[in-house]
Amino acid sequence: MTRAALLLALAAALFFVFERSLRSRETPQPTLVERLLPEERAKELVVAALSIEQPGASARRIVARKAGLWRALDATNAVCDSRVIEPLVQSILEARVLTRASDEADIAAFGLARTPLWRIELCGAKVLADPGRDVLLALDVGRSLPPHATLVRRSGETKVLELDFDLARLLDETFARGPVPFEDARLVAGPFPGPGRTIDRVFVDRDDGTGLELVRQLATDASSASEAAWTWQLSVDGFAKPCPAPRAEAFLAFLTSVPTAGALARRSANELGFEKPTVRLTILGSGGDAMVLELVLRRDENEAYGFNRTLDTLARMDPVLAELLAPSAASFLELDRPNLWDSWLREHLRVEPGR
Questions:
Q1: What's the count of helices (H) and strands (E) in the chain, helices before strands?
Q2: In a domain, 344, yes or no
Q3: pLDDT greater than 80 at residue 194
Q4: DSSP 3-state of 57
Q5: 292 and 332, same structural domain?
Q6: Who's near 13: CB < 8 A, 6+ residues apart?
Q7: Mean pLDDT along residues 217-226
Q8: Does one domain contain both 160 and 301?
Q9: Rounded to whole angstroms, how far apart are CA atoms 257 and 52?
């Protein structure tokens, strides 16, 4: 080997060692895989609330279980989505982590400086009564690590941990949608009418004294209560007519899916006009449960508001969608009219009513 070739090989080897050393410093290597919480400790914890804080913005939000629903503990009393919250809690309790070696520069780069990006606390039932919020576990949350991990540390500690799911992205996304974390942003929020149950009757009453009633009933020639044996009837001014099932089913699917446009403080209900709502809907489920919705339609101002009296939640509504909750009899019976509920469901939820 010539002297020049030898020098070139030596330079390449030194560069390789230097590059590996630099990469090691930039991306500290994980060491031990362990559970975030010991298994027995995780099983003992009864999580009744979540506290989520952005320390840099001095903003804290708390959601807690109340009467079977997760609620925002603020002036909105908004219902939050248990389908997101409960798996999240379970994921934290069962999480596995990698311990990462780190120095002060690394900690800042990881989003875990003195002021972390997020802080999440799993709390017990005394979250409001206890000045310390009855904290069971607190995590400072840093940045995401592709493809599906997050850098965290236990609040008050310095050790950096790599969490085995992307908690940072989940928090970023839920707060990007609005100030209420994990909000179930539907006027009919929660599991109503419940698993295995149906909506059997809806009353629509307007402030001008007019209204209609939509009723699900067993076909007169049916021999069993199978799904195919049910029909719909529309009553207006005491006169009943058969209602086409695709219209009735699309309306009910829309009714339980229609989104709100922002939760509002309940104390503003009267000033928005809910002492005399434009429309009131009374929805009766097959299990005997009921839900009452009220709408205020300010058509001259192109504004609409919805008040779920049963859930005690108030929200701003898209005026176009709010009008679809106050249908005329012709919307159901005149088949040359477009089925606007079905069109909305197909476009926004990619579902077909009755499927």
A1: 9, 19
A2: yes
A3: yes
A4: helix
A5: yes
A6: none
A7: 66
A8: no
A9: 27
Task: Check whether residue 66 and residue 142 sit in a common domain.
Answer: yes
State whether residue 317 is helix, strand or coil.
Answer: strand
Structure token pair of residue 102: 């780190």
Domain containing residue 85: 29-176
Question: What is the predicted pLDDT for the residue at 334?
Answer: 95
CA distances from 66 to 15, 78, 80, 154, 257 (A): 61, 11, 11, 27, 22
- 194 part of a folded domain: no
Q: Is residue 23 part of a domain?
A: no
How many domains in the chain? 2
Structure tokens at 60: 């804290």
Residue 338 in 3-state DSSP? coil
In a domain, 5, yes or no: no
∠ at Cα 252 (196, 79), nearest 5°? 75
Whether pLDDT at 5 is above 90: no
Choosing from 109, 144, 176, the residue where a domain stops is 176
* Cis peptide upstream of residue 193 (ω within 30 degrees of 0): yes
Same-domain pairing of 147 and 224 = no
Name which of 1, 153, 178 is nearest 76 in CA terms. 178
| Strands 279-285 vs 290-298: parallel, antiparallel or unpaired | antiparallel
- Kindly state whether residues 148 and 227 are assigned to the same domain: no
Domain identity same for 169 and 204: no
Q: How far apart are CA 283 and CA 202, in angstroms?
A: 5
Distance CA 122, CA 52 (A): 9
What pLDDT is attached to residue 223?
58
Rg (CA), the chain: 28
> In this structure, are 205 and 344 located in the same domain?
yes
Looking at the structure, do residues 167 and 277 belong to the same domain, yes or no? no
Tell me which of 176, 208, 223 is where a domain ends: 176
> What distances in angstroms separate CA 316 from CA 77, 81, 227, 260, one per listed residue?
14, 18, 36, 6
Whether the pLDDT of residue 27 is over 70: the answer is: no
Identify the residue with better confidence: 311 or 26: 311
- Helical packing angle, 82-93 and 167-176, nearest 10°: 160
Collapsing DSSP to helix, strand or coil, 196 comes out as coil
Q: Is the alpha carbon torsion for 347, 80, 199, 274 positive or negative? A: negative
